[in-house]
């Protein structure tokens, strides 16, 4: 009887150079996240123009913002578990096509209730993008570059949200607010087509789920041309498939405390992010500035996150999550508290908005990377997806609460002082995670990612 040679795809990836094939995966996932960020944030940018067009009060759009994010919540939870069963690739392609169609339909909405329903349905597709791109990139990146790769790719979401502000500032005066959704719906069709032909499935997923060895060999050769192939090779991965419901496994093998702490951190940080992203353009417009200036103020939040993510990601790789994320969230806390300060000059306003975006959005990219490092292959999409899903509850609360507080006549100063508190809680959560994570007990071989 012939002895089969065992070959670890996990070790092959960890020891590989970051070649053209892996760069291609990163580029595809990045442009997918760019449009994800664009479409999630589009409503905030069109809000000032839509409010004037439909002659509705600001608070009427609070439920619309939250409905879209409730859809993202369902998408994050449902598609992440589905991806851990059927694969990252089909879920990413399907979600891209789905949210593309619904975003195009958004451009045809004529009432607040229609907009609310369509944005909720679109959010379900949007919620499937982040957890699965992060999982796929993490599973193809070499160990020494994994955090950096995931931070860079996740920054595509921030870049797309920032891009949305500049595109909206250009399109709305010339073609009206509906043109923003037409743009945001057509581009993902092209991206989904590219992914159908070029995007591979996760090698580790294929091995863990005991899929076709021929398919494993096909993609493995693109990572490591010297890898053995043929009937005499048995491919292995570092993790094994676990029985039971994936979500329940998030609380097993010593993961419960860190899982809960990451959920709280996701909740408070995304509450802040979507409060700022949804309402800053409208608040700035109400201060007497033009719609274009208001939209650019919203884009400044995203720019802070986009630029800051590269810097924070590099620092995290060098010093660890705890040492970098704590001051990052504290910076966000202080900056947010200054946004509503009476008589703030427009230049100063843009500076504190930029710093707020840097703290909140680059912090969120690092949270996603922390989740991808913490959970094993068979739980990675579920772990990231459930963390983001719980975070989306905060994202739903943020815009809705902002609208309700405006209806109660809270001042801008009071609004943004309240918004500073969740950033302080996020800083506390990462401190507690540093105390609670016990890598050796959980079988995690990368304890250095927490603090060097």
Strands, helices and their partners?
Layout: E1 5-8, H1 9-14, H2 20-54, H3 62-86, H4 88-106, H5 112-126, H6 129-140, H7 146-175, H8 178-198, H9 203-208, H10 213-223, E2 233-236, H11 246-249, H12 256-286, H13 291-319, H14 321-339, H15 346-374, H16 377-407, H17 412-436, H18 439-442
Parallel strand pairs: 1-2
Tell me what you see in this structure.
- With 452 residues, the protein is mainly α.
- It has 18 helices and 2 strands.
- The protein has a two-stranded parallel ribbon.
- Helix 13 (291-319) runs antiparallel to helix 14 (321-339).
- The protein is globular and about 75 Å long.
- Residues 440-448 have low confidence and may be disordered.
Brief summary of the model shown:
The protein is mostly helical and 452 residues long. Helix content is 78%, strand content 2%.
Return the structural class. mainly alpha
Tell me the distance between the termini.
Answer: 49 Å
Q: What composes the largest sheet?
A: 2 strands, parallel
Question: How many distinct beta strands?
Answer: 2
Strand order in space, largest sheet: 1-2
